[in-house]
Amino acid sequence: MSILDIFNLTWKPREGIIYRNKIWGRHKNLVWLKPMWQGQPPFPIGKRRQNISKVYVELDKIRYSGSFQVKGNVCTFGILNHRHITELYKTDRQNVKFFKRYTGKSKVHPKFGKIVNETKSYRYLAKVIDSSKITREKILGRQLVRRRGTALVDTKEGILVVAGKSGIFILPGGGAEKGESREKAAIRELREETGLKTISIKYLFSHDDPEYRRIRNLYKIFLVEAVGKIKPDGHEVKHIRFWKPNSDINISNTTKLIIDKYLNEFKNT
Questions:
Q1: What are the distances in angstroms from CA 229 to CA 109, 191, 195?
Q2: Residue 66 sits in which domain range?
Q3: H-only helix segments in the chain
Q4: Domain boundary among 100, 122, 137
Q5: Are residues 209 and 253 in the same domain?
Q6: What is the pLDDT of residue 107?
Q7: Mean pLDDT of all residues belonging to the chain
Q8: Low-confidence ranges of the chain (pLDDT < 50)
Q9: In this predicted structure, what is the pLDDT of residue 40?
Q10: What b/e readout covers 153-186, taking b as 16+ CB neighbours within 10 angstroms?
Q11: 153 and 222 in contact (C-beta within 8 Å)?
Q12: pLDDT of 114
C-alpha cells in the first residue's frame, strides 16, 4: 500500500497520457503480444509484465467507467457505455482531483507453454469537484443510428421485460433489418426472444436517444397483445419477468422513460 492510499492523497497524472481501461482480452489465459510484423515471435520467451488498469470518472457523486487525459490546464474526460465513449466533457485542471490506487498483483498463465505473466493492477479515479464548470464536447467520428421496434406487452402480471447476462431488464424488441418496418421488427423480435406470438399490435409513440450519442437508437413503441408459452431464447435473453410500479426489477434508463410515458399518457386512454 502506498502513502497516497494511506492518507487518501491526490495523484498527479502524466501530461498527455490517456488513462483508460486495460484488460487481457476476452479470455484470461491469453498472452499479450506485440504484432508479429514488429518482430515479435509468435510465442513469448521469458517472463512478461503487463499492467491492468480500471479507470473511473466521478460526476455528481456518481461513479462511471470512463477515461481521462490532462493537457496543460485542461482535463478531458469521457463516460463509457457498452465499451464506447458516449459522453465527452472538458473542464479546468483544477476542477478535478485524481487518485491512483494499487489493487494487487496477479499471475496469468498463457494458452501455450509454461510461461507465467505477472500483472500489477491499478485503479484510477478522476473526481469532478464542481459539475457546473464542465462543458460537453462533440464526439468526433461516425455516428451509428439504429432503427428499433419495441414491443410493450402489458398484462395483469405487469409489463413484460427481458434481460441478458447483464441482468438489466429492457422491453423486448430490436433493430429493423434492411427493408423491414419497425412494426414487423417488434413482432419478429418478440417471437424470437420470448416465444410469444402477436395477435394484435398498435403504434403508441416514438422515442429517440439524444443526438450527441455515438450509437443512437430511434425507437418506435408498439402496444402488443400476444399469446403462447413464454420461454427465453437462451442466447440474447436469459431472464423474463413482469415489471410493476415500485418493483425492484433493475430496468434500463431508456426503458424507464418509455414505460413512464406509456403509463402517464397512454394507459387507460
A1: 45, 10, 6
A2: 3-137
A3: 3-7, 182-194, 253-265
A4: 137
A5: yes
A6: 66
A7: 81
A8: 1-7, 24-49
A9: 41
A10: bbeeeebbbbbeeeeebbbbbbebeeeeebbebb
A11: no
A12: 61
